[in-house]
Inverse folding.
C-alpha cells in the first residue's frame, strides 16, 4: 500500500511541482487581476463613480496620449535600436562588444535616474542649461518621450544584437559569396532581426506605458500617474483607481495577444540561440564611419551620467545623512524575490521548453503580468493583501517580494527556458530511462547542467527588481522605502547633490551586480 | 514464452504527418534487431515510443508481455521500464565524472553502494576504461566517450538496450573498433537490443535480424542475407548495390 502510494507520488512529482509553482504564480500574479474585477462588482457605488469618471473626456484624453507616447517611444527605439544592434552585433566596428555593454547598462536602471541626469545637464541650473529653452523642451511631452526612448532603446539594440549573433554563420557566408556586405545585412540579417525588433518594440511599449518616474519628474500628465494619484493621500479614491485600470488591462491583453502571435513561438530564436561561431560582416572603407556611428549611438544613452556625476560631486559628503536604509530595502527584497523567481523559473522554464501541459498558460500569465502597467498590478495587489489578516505580509518587505514575483516572472523563466531548449533533450531523457524521477533529475541533472543559466536568470531578476519603482511605490511599507522610491521622493524636496549622489549609488549597486555576474560568466576551461 | 519487446500496430502522427503507420515488431530474448531506414523514416521515433518518451497515437507496446503504452497513453513511464539507451549524441552528463555518469542510474534504482562500485568497476574494465573513472567527459577522447555511453547503459543490467545511431559520427577505424566491441558485448551478455542505423554494414555486423523502416512503415524484415537475396524496395536494393 505504502509502496504503491510512493510510486504514484513519484509518477506525479512533475505535475505536483508544476502545479505548486503554478499556484504561487496564480496567487502572486493572477489573483490581483481577479480581485480588481471582483472588488468592482462588489462595490457598485464606487464602480458607478469610476464609470462616470470614464464617461468623461479627460481620462480618455490622458489615456490615449499615454498610449500614443508609448507608441512613439517604441517606434523611436526600433528606428535607433535595429541599425545599432546590426552594427554592434554583426559588423567589425571597433570595440563593438564594449560599446554594446556600455549602451545596454542604462536598461537596468530606473529611467527616471536618466531623466534626473538630463535635468542636471539641461535644466535651468544645469551644466549646459541657461537659456531655459532646453529646460522647457525637457519638461514637455516631447522631452519625456525622448528620455524614455533613450532609456529603452538598449532593449531593442540588445535583443537585435543577440538574435543576429545566433544566426547560423553558414547562412551569412553563403550570402557573402554572392553579395556585398550591405546587401547581406539588409536581405539576410535584417529578416532574422525583425522578430527580435518586434519583441523589443512590445517590451518597450509596455515599459513606457508603465513608466511612472519619468512623467512624474518631468511634470507630464500620464495615465499611470493618474491611477497612482488616486492611491495617494491627497486624492484618495481607490474605486476610481480600479476603474481607471480597466482600459489599461485591455491594452495588456492586446499586448499579450500580439506577443503570442508575433514572437511567442519564436522567442527562443530571438533571445539568442547563440552559435559557437559568429560571422562578422566587414565594413571595409566604411569601418571608421561605422565605428563612430556605433559608439555615438552607444554612448548617447550614457550622457545622463555626466549630469548625475557633475551634480553629485558635492553631494557624497552628506550621503550618510540621507541614504537611510534605502539600499538595504532595495537589495534584500530584490535578492529574495530573485531567488524565488529563479526557483520558479527552473520548474516553469523547463516545462515551457519541453512543452509540458499547462506550461503555456503559466507562460502567458507571466507575460501578461509583465506587459500590464505596474499600476494595475499594484492596485490589484493592494486589493488582495491590504486587509487585517494579512498585515504581517502587507506591512512588511514581504509585500514587495510578492510584487516582484508577480511582475518579473517572465524574465528568469524565459531565460531558463532558453537554456533548456538549447540543450539536448537526451540529457534528461537518459536520466529518466535510467530510472530517475522528476525531482532527482531536476536536482542532479537539470540544475547542475544549467548552473550558468540559473545565475543569469537570478541576475536578470535581481537587477529588474532593483530598478523597480512603479510597482513598489504603490504599496511599500512605511519606513521601508526602497532606494528608487527614496530618490524620487527626495527629488521633490531634498538637496539636488544628494539626490544625484543617491542615483549614482543606485547605478553602482547595479553595476557591481552586473560585474560580479560577468566574472561568474567568464568562459571556463574544460576540466 | 513472452517476448521482451513487442510493438503492435503502432501509429504516431506529428501534426498532419504520419511518422509511424501500423508498425509491428517483436524482439526475442537475447536477439539484436537493427531498425534500418533512411533519414526521416521514423526510426528514432519508434525507439522513443518503446522507451516511453512519447506515447503512440494508436497501437500497443509490450515489455515482457505487459502493456506499457496503449492508444495515446503511457501506462508505464520510462523510469519504470527497465530499459537503457545510448543516444546518437551520447548525452553524457558533463558535470559528472565517468563514475558519476555510471553511478547515477544505479543510485536512482537504490542499488547498495558496494554493489554499485563492483558493477561500475566490472563494466569499466569490460569497455577498457579502467583507471578513467574520475575523468569528466570533456577530458575524454571521442572513442572513450562512446565507451562511457555504452558502459552507462550496460551497468544498469537492463532488460533491453536501445541504441539510436550510436556510431554515426565516427571515423571508419573507430567505428570498426567500437562495432566489434558492441557486437562482442551484446552477444556475450545475451542482451536483447534494438540498434537503429541507416548503415547496412553496421546492421550486418551487430544484428541477428533487420527490420527496414521506410516512411513510417516496415517494408521488409529478416536476416541480412534474406534482405540482400530478395530486396523488397528500392531502398534495400540501393543498400545492396552499395554493399557491392
Amino acid at each position: 500500500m505504502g509502496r504503491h502510494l510512493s510510486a504514484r507520488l513519484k509518477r506525479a512529482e512533475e505535475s505536483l511541482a508544476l502545479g505548486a509553482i503554478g499556484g504561487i504564480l496564480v496567487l502572486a500574479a493572477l489573483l490581483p487581476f481577479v480581485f480588481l474585477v471582483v472588488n468592482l462588482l462588489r462595490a457598485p457605488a464606487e464602480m458607478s463613480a469610476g464609470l462616470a469618471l470614464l464617461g468623461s473626456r479627460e481620462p480618455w484624453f490622458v489615456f490615449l496620449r499615454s498610449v500614443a507616447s508609448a507608441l512613439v517611444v517604441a517606434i523611436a527605439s526600433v528606428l535607433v535600436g535595429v541599425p545599432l544592434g546590426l552594427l554592434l552585433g554583426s559588423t567589425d566596428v571597433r570595440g563593438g562588444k564594449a560599446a554594446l555593454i556600455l549602451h545596454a547598462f542604462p536598461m537596468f536602471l530606473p529611467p527616471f535616474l536618466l531623466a534626473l541626469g538630463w535635468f542636471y545637464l539641461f535644466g535651468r541650473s544645469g551644466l549646459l542649461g541657461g537659456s531655459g529653452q532646453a529646460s522647457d523642451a525637457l519638461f514637455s511631452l516631447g522631452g519625456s518621450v525622448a528620455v524614455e526612448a533613450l532609456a529603452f532603446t538598449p532593449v531593442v539594440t540588445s535583443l537585435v544584437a543577440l538574435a543576429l549573433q545566433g544566426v547560423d554563420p553558414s547562412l551569412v557566408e553563403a550570402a557573402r559569396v554572392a553579395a556585398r556586405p550591405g546587401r547581406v545585412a539588409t536581405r539576410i540579417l535584417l529578416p532574422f532581426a525583425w522578430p527580435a525588433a518586434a519583441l523589443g518594440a512590445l517590451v518597450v511599449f509596455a515599459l513606457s506605458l508603465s513608466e511612472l518616474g519619468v512623467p512624474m519628474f518631468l511634470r507630464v500628465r500620464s495615465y499611470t500617474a493618474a491611477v497612482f494619484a488616486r492611491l495617494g493621500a491627497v486624492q484618495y479614491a481607490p474605486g476610481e483607481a480600479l476603474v481607471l485600470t480597466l482600459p489599461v488591462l485591455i491594452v495588456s491583453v492586446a499586448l499579450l495577444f500580439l506577443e503570442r502571435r508575433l514572437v511567442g513561438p519564436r522567442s527562443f530564436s530571438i533571445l539568442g540561440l547563440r552559435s559557437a561561431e559568429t560571422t562578422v560582416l566587414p565594413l571595409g572603407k566604411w569601418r571608421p564611419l561605422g565605428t563612430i556611428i556605433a559608439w555615438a549611438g552607444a554612448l548617447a544613452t550614457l550622457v545622463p551620467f555626466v549630469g548625475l556625476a557633475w551634480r553629485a560631486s558635492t553631494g557624497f559628503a552628506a550621503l550618510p545623512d540621507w541614504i537611510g536604509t534605502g539600499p538595504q530595502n532595495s537589495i534584500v527584497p530584490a535578492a529574495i524575490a530573485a531567488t524565488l523567481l529563479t526557483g520558479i523559473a527552473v520548474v516553469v522554464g523547463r516545462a515551457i521548453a519541453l512543452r509540458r501541459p499547462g506550461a503555456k498558460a503559466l507562460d502567458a500569465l507571466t507575460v501578461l503580468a509583465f506587459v500590464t502597467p505596474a499600476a494595475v498590478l499594484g492596485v490589484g495587489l493592494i486589493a488582495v493583501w491590504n486587509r487585517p489578516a494579512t498585515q504581517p505580509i502587507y506591512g512588511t518587505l514581504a509585500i514587495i517580494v510578492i510584487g516582484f514575483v508577480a511582475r518579473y516572472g517572465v524574465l528568469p523563466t524565459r531565460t531558463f527556458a532558453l537554456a533548456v531548449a538549447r540543450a539536448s533533450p537526451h540529457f534528461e531523457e537518459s536520466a529518466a530511462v535510467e530510472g530517475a524521477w522528476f525531482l532527482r533529475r531536476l536536482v542532479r541533472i537539470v540544475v547542475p547542467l544549467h548552473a550558468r543559466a540559473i545565475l543569469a536568470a537570478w541576475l536578470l531578476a535581481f537587477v529588474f527588481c532593483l530598478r523597480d519603482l512603479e510597482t513598489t511605490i504603490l504599496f511599500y511599507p512605511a519606513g521601508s522605502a526602497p532606494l528608487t522610491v527614496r530618490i524620487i521622493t527626495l527629488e521633490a524636496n531634498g538637496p539636488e547633490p544628494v539626490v544625484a549622489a543617491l542615483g549614482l549609488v543606485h547605478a553602482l549597486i547595479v553595476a557591481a551586480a552586473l560585474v560580479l555576474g560577468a566574472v561568474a560568466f567568464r568562459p571556463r576551461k574544460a576540466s | 514464452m513472452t517476448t521482451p519487446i513487442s510493438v503492435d500496430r503502432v501509429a504516431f502522427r506529428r501534426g498532419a504527418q504520419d511518422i509511424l503507420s501500423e508498425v509491428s515488431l517483436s524482439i526475442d530474448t537475447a536477439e539484436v534487431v537493427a531498425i534500418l531506414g533512411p533519414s526521416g523514416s521514423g526510426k528514432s521515433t519508434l525507439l522513443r515510443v518503446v522507451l516511453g518518451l512519447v506515447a503512440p497515437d494508436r497501437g500497443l507496446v509490450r515489455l515482457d508481455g505487459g502493456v506499457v503504452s496503449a492508444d495515446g497513453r503511457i501506462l508505464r513511464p520510462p523510469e519504470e521500464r527497465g530499459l537503457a539507451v545510448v543516444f546518437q549524441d551520447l548525452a553524457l552528463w558533463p558535470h559528472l565524472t565517468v563514475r558519476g555518469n555510471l553511478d547515477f542510474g544505479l543510485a536512482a534504482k537504490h542499488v547498495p553502494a558496494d554493489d554499485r562500485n563492483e558493477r561500475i568497476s566490472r563494466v569499466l574494465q569490460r569497455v577498457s576504461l579502467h583507471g578513467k573513472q574520475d575523468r569528466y567527459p570533456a577530458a575524454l577522447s571521442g572513442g572513450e566517450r562512446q565507451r562511457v555511453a555504452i558502459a552507462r547503459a550496460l551497468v544498469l543490467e537492463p532488460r533491453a538496450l536501445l541504441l539510436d545511431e550510436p556510431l554515426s559520427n565516427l571515423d571508419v577505424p573507430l567505428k570498426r573498433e567500437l562495432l566489434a566491441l558492441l557486437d562482442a558485448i551484446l552477444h556475450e551478455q545475451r542482451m536483447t537490443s534494438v540498434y537503429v542505423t541507416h548503415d547496412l554494414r553496421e546492421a550486418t555486423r551487430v544484428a541477428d535480424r533487420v527490420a527496414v523502416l521506410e516512411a513510417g512503415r516496415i517494408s521488409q524484415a529478416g536476416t541480412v542475407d534474406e534482405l540482400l537475396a530478395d530486396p523488397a524496395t528500392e531502398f534495400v536494393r540501393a543498400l545492396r548495390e552499395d554493399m557491392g
Notes: Chain B has a mean pLDDT of 93. Residues 93-157 of chain B form one domain. The helical segments of chain B are 43-51, 98-108, 113-126, 142-154, 172-188, 200-206, 224-229, 234-243. The interface with chain A takes residues 51, 53, 77-85, 87, 89-91, 93-95, 104-105, 108-109, 136, 138-139, 152, 156 of chain B (CB under 8 Å).
